[in-house]
Amino acid sequence: MFFVKQKTNKLFDSFLNIFNKAKDSLKQPVSDDINQQLLLQLNKKKIPSWSQFKQLSKILQKPEKIKLLIILLVFLISASALGWRMYWRNSIEVPAIGGTYTEGLIGAPQFINPILANTDVDRDLVRLVFSGLVKLNTNGEIVPDLAAAYTIDAEATTYTFELKPNLKWHDGHPLTADDIIFTIERITDADFKSPLKNSFSGVDVKRINDRTIQFKLAKPFTPFLSIMTVGIIPEHLWYSVPSFSAALTDLNIKPVGSGPYKFKSLTKDTNGSIKNYSLEIFENYHLDNAYIKELSFKFYEDFMTGVMALQNKNVEGLTYLPEENKDQINNKKINLHDLHYPQYTSVFFNPNNNSLLSDKDFRKALSLSVDKNRILTEVLNGAGKIIHTPILPGMTGYDESIKTEDFNTVAAAGILDDLGWTLSEDKQFRSKTIKAESDDEEDQVEELSIKLTTIDQSASVKIVSIIKENWEAIGIKTTLDIISKDKIKKDIIDPREYEVLVFGELININSGPYPFWHSSQNKHPGLNLSVLANKDIDEYLELARSAKTTQAKIEPLTNFQNKLLELNFAIFLYNPTYTYPTASKIKGLESLQFINLPADRFNNINSWYIKTKRTLTK
Length: 618
Fold this sequence. Notes:
The chain contains 18 helices and 23 strands. It is α+β, with helices and mostly antiparallel strands and about 625 residues long. The strands form 7 sheets. The chain has a 6-stranded mixed beta sheet.
C-alpha cells in the first residue's frame, strides 16, 4: 500500500503539471484562433469546469494523454484496494448454500424407512431423510426435533409431546399428530415386522389434538425418550400399503420424509443394484436449513474397495476408515475425524459349550493372561482406550477407579495349578487326570483346551492370534475358529454356538447395559453374549433401568460393574476410536465429537458447508 501511495502521489503531481500546462496554454492569447480566444473568456475560475475538462483531449499531446490515463487507472485501483481493505476488516466469512458432497457407504440400501431399517447404510440415509419427535445433538444429548416441547409426569410413565406448528412432509402435505400415531401403530403391528416392535411393547399412544400426542407406559422406563428419536413415516402415503407387503413398496427406496434432505434420484447397475443415490436440500425443513445443496452416495461391497475409491477421489468421504486401512490414505486433502464411539471389543464366555467356563477362577486365569496393552498397540496402533467394564467414558455410571487386575501370567498360572491343571516338562499344554468312576475303568487324562471364535476381519484375527499366544504361554491349548462375515451372526452368535467369542458390541448409551448383560437376554434375540446369569447383576440392572433420575442410576450401575468384575463374566479389551474421513473442503464438523451410532455423524449435517460468503459485522 505504501508503494501504491507513493506512485499515486507522483502521478497526481504529474497530473497537476499537465493540467497547469493546459491551463497556461488556454491563457495564452492566440490572435489567429477565434475558438481559443472565446474559450479563455468563458470561465476565469481557477478550478476548471466540466466543459473545460472536456476540452483536454483537444489540448493535450498524445504522451500527456497516456500519462493522464495511467493516473486515472492507478487512482481507481488504489480506491478499490482501499475500499476492499475496509470491507474485509469489517466483514466475516459465513457459510453459504451450495456445493455437493459424495460419500462412500459399505453395503447397499434396502429399507430407507425408519421403522424397517436394519443396516448401517439404511440408518445413514434414514437419518438424513426422516425426523423424529426428538433427536440427538453433537454431544449425544436429547433435544426436540419435530416436537416443540415435551413433558414427563412425576411417575415417569406419561410422556406428552407438542409438535411444532406448520410441519411439512417433503411432498408438501402437513405433518400432524395422526402421522405419529400411525407410525407407532405400524411399529407394533406384527405383520409389519419392524425390528423396533419390542421397544414399544406395553406403550399406549393417544392423540390429544392435531399437535399433541401422549404416550403412557406400564412402568417407568428411563431410556424411553431415546426411543422417540425414531423417524416418523407419512400416513397419507403408507396407509394404503398392507402391513404384510410393507417390505416390497417403492417407498422404501424412494422415501418421503420430513428431514433436512429429500430424495432426488438413484441409478442402478445392470444387476438392478443401486449404484448411486442422491439427496437434495428440503427448503421447508422445520429447523435450520442445510448449506450443502446436494448429497450423493456410492455403495461398495467392502472397506477395501471403499478406501480405494476415497484415495482415488471417486468419493470425498467414507462412512468409516478402519485402522488397518489408514496407511492407504495419502491424500492430503482428506481430514480424519476421530470420534468417541460407544463400542467395545470383548471376550465373551459360553459355559454351555465348555463346562470349564462355569468356574469363575478359571475365567479369572484367562483374564489375567490377556495382554490388553499389546492388543491395543499392535491391532489399533494405540487408536483407542483400554477398558475394564462395559460402562464407557462419558456414560452414566462410568468410574475410572473400577478396574480389573493387571496383566499377570504368573498369577494366572498359579490359579491353573490350584485348579489341578498341571504342566509337565515334556508337554506344551496342561492336563488333569480324571479318576475313573469304577475299578473296571481306567483313569483319563484330559488336556486343557479351549476354542476361540471370531469374525473374519483383519483386526479380530490379530486379536485372537495374540490371545492364543497369551493362553498357550500358560499351558492352555487354544484352537482358533475364524468365521466369515456372512455366517457369524446366523450360524454362531444367534444360536450361541461358541465356547469363547471375541466380538465387538455397539451399545446405545441411552438404553444402558440391560440389553447386553441381563440374564433374560442370554438367548437370541437378546444381546447378552456371555451366556452367564447372576441374580445380583440382574437386580442391579433392573434398578438402573427403572431409576427416574440419572443420579439414581449411579449406585446400581457401580454395583453392577463391581459384581461383573468379581465374577469375571467377560474380558473387556478396548473402546476403539471411530475414524470418519472427509474431504478438507467440507467445513462445520468441528462440533462433532461423539456418536452413538455411525448415522450420528450426520447429527449436525445442517451445519456442514462447502461454499462461503462475506457479510458485514454489526
